[in-house]
Each structure stands twice: as structure tokens, then as C-alpha cells.
Amino acid sequence: MLTASVLERARENAESLMTDECTVVRPGEAATDPATGEVKPNSAQVYAGHCKVQTSGGLASENVEGSAAQAMGAVSLVWSLYIHFPFGTMLCNGDLVTVTQSANPELVGRRYRMISPQSEKSWATACRWNVKEDA
Question: Is 123 helix (H, G, I), strand (E, B) or coil?
């Protein structure tokens, strides 16, 4: 039987793998500067702390049946991109994540848009989000 102490240890173990650091901002309504007329985006930071960038997939898959790409024998790689946060981190679709520190220097400075949560389960050990790289 899963007990509260086992679940707490599992959450601690999951968080121990979150060695990247990031900030998350929530875009708000744009504001117009009354002096210049310039429209500036408005956002608020909603999280700063540990995270883990994660990919899965990479299996070759044929494109949609009946498509021109399939008729030409095209195969594409399908990857899913996730960011994991400590359990209890409250974030929303559309929030923007910037990786500020990572053991992988290629991740530092990358920005991701949060698409949908993947943590809706009874015994969640982390807050996992599907993300897409933001240009």
C-alpha cells in the first residue's frame, strides 16, 4: 500500500533530478505608453526555481495515412518535449518558461510555452507540462 511517507520520498526523489533552474512568466494584457504610444507586453513572474527539461519519443513514424508525404514514403521523427517542476507548482497554459541554468549549456536561454499539464493523476510526484519551444 502506498503511504504518505512513501509518496513524500518519491516527490523528493523526483525533485532531486530537477537540476536545471528556470523562471516562468505569465503574459498579461499589453499596455500602451501614454507618452510614446508604444505598446509594450505586460507579464508577471509566477515561478523561479528548479525544473528539468525532458524529451521522449524519437521513434520514426509515417505521416498521416493518405497524405502526400506518406505516398512519397516520408518518415519523420516524433519527439515530445516536457518540463518538470516540483510537486505543487501552480502554473497555467500559455505561461513562458526560460531556462536560466543547466548542466547542458545548450538549454540555457531557451524559452518554452506551456501547452498542457501531464500531472493529473492521484499519485503525482512532480508537475509535468507539455511544452513547445517559443521563438
Answer: coil
The rounded distance, in Å, linking the Cα atoms of 5 and 66 is 52
pLDDT value at position 91? 96
Half-sphere exposure of 14 (CA within 13 A, CB side): 22
- Minimal CA–CA distance to 129: which of 100, 99, 86? 86
Residue found under cell 540555457: 108
Q: Determine contact, residues 76/61, Cβ cutoff 8 Å.
A: yes
Distance CA 77, CA 127 (A): 26
Report phi then psi at 133, rounded to 5: -65, 135
Low-confidence ranges of the chain (pLDDT < 70): 1, 58-78
Residue found under cell 509518496: 7
d(CA 134, CA 114): 9
Q: How far apart are CA 108 and CA 22, in angstroms?
A: 9
Contact by Cβ (8 Å): 13, 46? no
Beta-carbon contacts of 58 under 8 Å, excluding residues fewer than 6 positions away, are 77, 78, 79
pTM over 0.85: no
